[in-house]
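Task: fold both queries, return C-alpha cells.
Query 1:
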Amino acid sequence: MQQTLSFDERLFLWLNFDGGVAMDSLMEIISGWLVWVPLYLFILYAVWRKFGMRGLFAFIVCLVLAMGLADMLCGIFKHSGMLANVWADFPARHRPMFDAVVRDLAHVPSYKHGPYGTVSAHAATVAAMAVLSALTLRRCWFSWVVGFVVVLVSYSRIYLACHYPKDLALGWMVGIVCGVAMYYLWRAFYKTLERYKR
C-alpha cells in the first residue's frame, strides 16, 4: 500500500527535478560559500563606508556571532555541532535523499551530506547574514538583493535533495531571530565604541 505524502513532501517533489549535469553543478556552487565571497566583501565595504572602522569591527563581530549562533541552534535538531547533545531525545528528520518515503522519487545529485536535515543551517546562516546586513545598511535595493540570495541558496538545498521546504522555513525563522538580535547588539557595540572615540 502506497504511503500518503504530506504537503511538505509533495511540495519538495514538485520543486526538486533533474536539471542535468550543468544544473547540478550550478546548484552545488550556489549552495557553497566561495561564490558569495564578493557579496560579503561588498557588505563589509558598504558598512565601512557608512560607519567607519569602528562600525565595521563591531559588524564583523556581530556577523560572526549571528551566523555561528544560527548554525549551532540548527545543530541541536540535527544532533551535530557544539550543541549536538542539548536535546538528545529530539527525533531528527532525515534529509529527503535519505528519507525512505521520497528518496526513490527525488533527484539526488550527491549523497555527500549528513543524514539529518531539520533545521537547515544553510537557510539559517544566510538569513541571519541577510537580516543583519539589511538592518545595518538600510537600503531598499540591497534588502531585495540579499532576500533574493536567501531564496536562491535555500532553493539550491531543495534541488540537491538536502532539505524539505519546512526545514528551510524553520531555518529562516532561526536566522531572522539571530540576525535581529545581533543587529541590536551591533548597534549597542557601535555606540559604545563611538563613545570612546578621541
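Query 1 returned. Query 2:
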Amino acid sequence: MDNMRKEQFRRKLPIPLELKAQYPLSEEATALKEARDAEIAKVFRGESDKLLLVIGPCSADRADSVLDYVGRLAGVQKEVADKLIIIPRIYTGKPRTTGAGYKGMMHQPDPDKAPDMYEGLISIRMLHKNAIEQTGLTCADEMLYPENGRYLSDLLSYVAIGARSVENQEHRLVASAHNIPVGMKNPTSGDLSIMLNAIRAAQGRHTFLYRGWELMSDGNEFAHAILRGSVDKFGINHQNYHYEDLRVLYDLYFDGTYKNPAVIIDTNHSNSGKKFYEQPRIVNEVLHSMRHSDDIRRMVRGFMIESYIEDGCQRVEDGVYGKSITDPCLGWEKSRALIYQIADQL
C-alpha cells in the first residue's frame, strides 16, 4: 500500500524549465552575471585581494523592501568596488527548527496570507531576476531544498548550505554539480570535521539521482567553509571566529588536499548569539586577526552579515517596512557604516 495518501498531493507545479522560459533573465543581465561570477571566482582562486560581503536579511519577506535594500547596496558597491564584492542575501527559504513559523517567500510569498507554492516559485524567481536587472547585483540564496535549485540556477552567484543541512548527502552531492561558490557551514555542534568532509564531498565527482535524472557531477572547486559558531548540549553559544579558532581551521584546512581553501565568517547566529548589534565588533576582530597573520588573511575571503533596513526583528502582524520577521538584523545606517569601515581597513 502507498505510504502517502493521494489527497495529500495538491497540484502539479511547473518544472524549472517552464518557469525559466516564462520569466527569462535578459541578455544584458545574463552577461552581467557571467562577469560577476568570474570576478567572484578570482577571489576564491586567490587571484584577487577583494573580500566578499554576503549581506542582507535573515530571510526575504516582501519584494518591495528587499529590492529597496538591494538597491541601497548597489549604490554603496560602486564606492567600494576596488576593495569589496557585495553579494546580497536573498534567502527565499527559511529553515525552522521545529517546523513552525514563516518558512520563507517560496512557501508564503505574502506573509499575511496562506502558503501558496505556485505563487511562491514565481515570486522568488521574479525577485532574484529583478534584483539583477534593476540593481546590477547578483545575489545569494540558501540551498534549503536541493531539488528546487534549478528554479534559480541561472540567477544565483552564491549558495549557502546551513548548519542543519551540511551533513545531508543530497546537499553535498548537489553542491558538487554547481559551478558557483557553495559555502558549507559548520554544524550546530561546531564539529569542524563534518564541515570539512562536506567540502571534500562537494569538491569530488559523483553520480547520483536528481529530479528523476541520473546526474554526473564534475566537483565544485569553489566549495568552502563558513564559520557560524556552535551550541553545546546546555544550549550555550560558542564563537569560532577568534584568532585561535581561525588558526585551528587553517591547520586542518590547508593540508594540500582541498581546492581553493577559503572561509567566510558568519557574524550572526551562534557567533553573535543572535545579538545583531555585535556583528560590527566581530567583523573588526577578524580584520584585526587578518592583519596579524598572513595565513588568516589568505584563508578568510569575506563575511556573512544579516542586515536589513531597520534594526532588529518584528512579528509579521507589526508590519514595519524593511524589518525582519525572522532573526534580528542590523539596520541600514549601521550596515552602510560597517561596509565603509571594512573597505577602509583593506
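Both queries returned. Flag for query 2: The chain has a mean pLDDT of 96.
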